[in-house]
Amino acid sequence: MVIDSRRRLGNGRLRIGGGLLALLLAAALLAPWLSPYDPQAMPFVPLSLPDGSHWLGVNDAGMDLFAELLYGLRNSLAFGLVGGFAALALGVAVGLMTAWYGGAVDAVGMRLADVLLAIPLVMPLLLLAVLAPPSPLLLALLLALLSWPSTARAIRAQALSLRNRPHVAAARQMGGSTFYILGRHLLPELAPLFLAGLAGKIRMALAMEVSLAFLGLFEPGRKSLGQTLRDGIQYYYLDIWWHWLLPPLLCLSLLILSLTLLAVGCEALFDSRLREG
Amino acid sequence: MLECSQLRVCYQEGEHALLAIDRVDLRLEPGRVLALVGESGSGKTTLARSLLGLAAKNARIDGALHLDGEDLTHLSEGDWNRVRWRRIAMVGQNGAAALNPVLSVGAQVAEPLIVHRGLGAGEALAQARTALAAMGLEPGLARHYPHELSGGQIQRALLAMALILDPQVLILDEPTAALDPPARKFVGEVIREQRRRGKAILLISHDLDSCRRLADTVAVLYLGRIFEELPAQDLFAAPRHPYTQALVRSYPRIDAVRDLGGMRGDAFYRMVHVHDRQAAEHAHTIGSDDPRETGHAPEQGCLFAPRCTQAQPACREEEPELLPVGEHLLRCRRGGIVNLLELYGVRKSYAHVTALAPVDLQLRQGEVFGLVGETGSGKSTLAMIAAGALAPDSGKCLFAGREMEDWLRQEQTALARQVGIVQQHPALAVSPRLDVFEIVAEPLRIQKTAGMPESLRERVARALAEVHLPNAPEFLRRFPQQLNQGTLQRLCIARALITEPLLLVADEPTSALDPSVQAKVMRLLLDLQIEKGLTLLLVTHDLGLARKVSDRIGVMHAGNLVEVGNAAQVWQHPGHPYTRELLNASFDLGDSDELHL
Amino acid sequence: MRGKLWSTLTAYALAAVLLLMLSHALLRLLPGDFVSAHWERGDALLDADQAAALRERFGTEESFSGYLSALARGDWGCSLALEKPVLDLITEALPWTLLLMGSAHLLATALGFIAGMEVAWRRGSPLEKGSVAVMSLLDGVPELVSGLLLLLFFSLRLEWLPASGAQTAYAELAGGAWFADLLRHLALPLLTLVLADLPGNFLLARGSMLLVLDAPYLETAQAKGLPPWRVRYRHGARNALLPLVTRFGLRFSLMVTGALVVETLFAYPGLARLLVEAVGRRDLPLARGIILFSSLAVLVLNLGVELLYRRLDPRVCHGH
After folding, report:
1. Which chains touch A (3 or more CB pairs under 8 A)?
2. CATH C-level class of A2-275
3. Please, what is the Cα angle at C173 between C172 and C176, to 5 degrees?
4. Contact A255/C at CB under 8 A
5. Structure confidence by residue, pLDDT tens digits, B576-592
6. Nearest CB to C224; choose among B101, B102, B112
7. B458 with B518, same domain?
8. Single pTM value for the model
């Protein structure tokens, strides 16, 4: 009874979140076709208001804002996806390994996790930015390298309890190799946890990207939702907020919302599975 | 005096509700201990909580609660807080978890003094230390934290804390669980002391031994209803309700000689459907068709019927009331454990040899009765008369309340259906001309039971499965000569039980078997007895065996039933000299005067 | 217990040393040498003399011990862009960041805890379900979004609050007026940071309190007839607080990115904005100095939290 309602709610959230994300993902992927102009092209009248040919107007350098929005969405989302997936992969790998092998592996892994958790994520990224102009890919990977601990902890906790289940012991007794057991018995059970973790990690990487772009740490010409906001806020005294600032804000909010719904929906699902199983 | 009447507690979860306590009446009188026993899920802890006005948010409570005449039923939280601990206190069952881990033990024991009596922290702590010392704990322990104390120390601290305001009523929820014997003894002494001081004590426990020793009255709770209320000394000696009897049997005791019994089936909960939040009175129970499969209590009729050894069709229709029977309060349509078989003044002779002098015997339904004696003592004769296979020369025989003659005259097949017999020599008990299938199917063929829901084949298969024999066609076509003794005896058991009898008479069922097989067959017999709720009359010359399996033992000598009593009683305090002789003989000791167990 | 304390202190000391070593080695991580790498990006052309002079000025050949003694002396280097000693710049900006981040974190933790706790107490009610839903959605919204929205709405549209700075420039205010002005400038950045930090604390507190609510000792407390506030706070909250304390330092670290964005967005003259500008201008000495300083500060904060926790939870000190 209680379980049913939670499940239903979880499913609803998953559907909305998933749908929204899919929409945005499609927009990002199809940006080259959807965008009416080359985002880097600067032939247009700067700071013009939206009209038929420029749906969101033109920015101060003469670039079409709608094109900028689409490509910005594309870049930001790409960063988020790369950072998120890499962080998840690392987190799952470390979580499973420490839970499975235990002993020294566990001790070292968890110690490392403790240390990494204490470091503010943005600091090493800033450090990198100071030393050399960073490529977004490098930054995304560095971010993943620093943010796996929280996922690893969660996965490890679940994996530890799964490890002691009879069906795992049976597989071991049957002679299954480590990878076989991990792949066939543990991974599927942990799947909902992955999704929740993945959504969370993508969200974090995305937030990091727009924040760093807003701070101007990427190349000036790179399109990003954060970059658009950075450019736009300088002209706050003009009446540009509704076509320059609001669209990227909205876009970003929708992205974050969809990821949050996915994460929360997955957790609810996992919870109900936990209770039934 | 704390009194609750028609107390009903229902946990609501959406449209359905879990009925935890159903119309329970209890009285806790000053200077008396009431023990509440029951299995997990019977509602004991819910009851304890309700007496303190503590219930989960989703619990609906109906009924009345009175303390010294004062109505506590609709008290506000503020008013309850003036009653709690001051007049009613409780020691919970969670041990160390019942104490706040971040506060010192002394601070927690002193807390009621500060809150209820307005004492200053220093003085309260000093009194707390005194209270702890009274429980045998050194005062220095007050500064320690719960995780630093042992289980026994925690229990003493909890007791000290409960008694600190000297309440009128004390509720103890499983006070002796997980404690070692010395700690248990200490808790018992505390209870006795508080009883002397005039407190009303509710002892919730499944330690039946403690209940018997410490309580005045015992109430037996099953699925939220009281099924029997009896004086504590009768708990082991003379329980009247089948459930109480089964509980006692399932309980390991130091002085019991019988192996653990058991009870068939499980029942965990009662779900009710509540039409709306206000009208819980209109709730009706819901459940599946077969309670045994889901663990749900039956929808109507007696709650215990599915597991009862003596349930009749009428039992499943109407729920019985709690009525006085002698000194007990009993909830049973049949007035408690009934006698399945009654023999009065039964006599039998064979050509001037008296096989049986006048013998009186009652078999209680659902029990295992061990009839012990040497060869020629008349035990087999008695057993056969009991089974209705032999007619006595004189005397009265009653089976299920009806005269045996009546049965034999009018419904012989009906009687035969209700009695199964297993004899000593399996090879002789079966016809060498019949194969396995026919042997087992024979009773059904004779009965010509019309309107059988299943085919003969299915019933035979089931009977064979119950005795752990295969159902393969090759096996079914075997003849007795091809089978060993153990298998044959199992076959006989299957045959005896295929008609679902009430009474099983087993005459030396294992003595002709190999020792290695004896235990297995005996084990099987006993498991079946529990599973089906059979009444088992076991005839044996082996007192040791009888002791291990029987509820009651009867000793026969030269045609007389010289002693009958509880197995433990007969074993430890044999009354008749012949019994003592038998005991000594089985121990093979020389000096009979010194033997006393 | 004594032993454990020493091992903790040693661990922290070790971490601090590691930080210092990393900070010292930073310059060597650059490809080529620092001077050419920096100036090559700009339009200025250097001749050999200038380059040599610069190399001497921003010498990279100092030893680790030399570095340490320089730090101890208060010589944290000199900012390339602003031409002022790094330590001076830090001490100028530090109070503002302390004010902003410090009060934001304390407020968010305190409010989040109390709200989470009270909501858990009312478990199952519409209030609880609603607030959990709202907080879950709010959690993860970046400071950029909330900050911009607040800025646009309260500052630019309604003009209730100033858009930038920590105090009105050249205003020469004193006493109460100065304080009020301070608060007006603090309001939006503070609100942004609190909005970002609060949901996590709330959810954590609620989760922790729910566990406590199911604990047997809470029922004992109720059975003792204690007044509700005492049950809730002395027995309930006191235990529910522990996970929050443990994570106080961690949650502070999470706030750093937000602080960078907020101080930049609202042009708040704190350490974070200083750092962002330093990074943007490739002002390595300043950036290095700020990062070292803040890392050490976070380390000290975590150590303080751990010591505090030992006092709060007797199970740690007296062994298990």
Report:
1. B, C
2. mainly alpha
3. 165
4. no
5. 888 888 888 776 644 44
6. B112
7. yes
8. 0.77
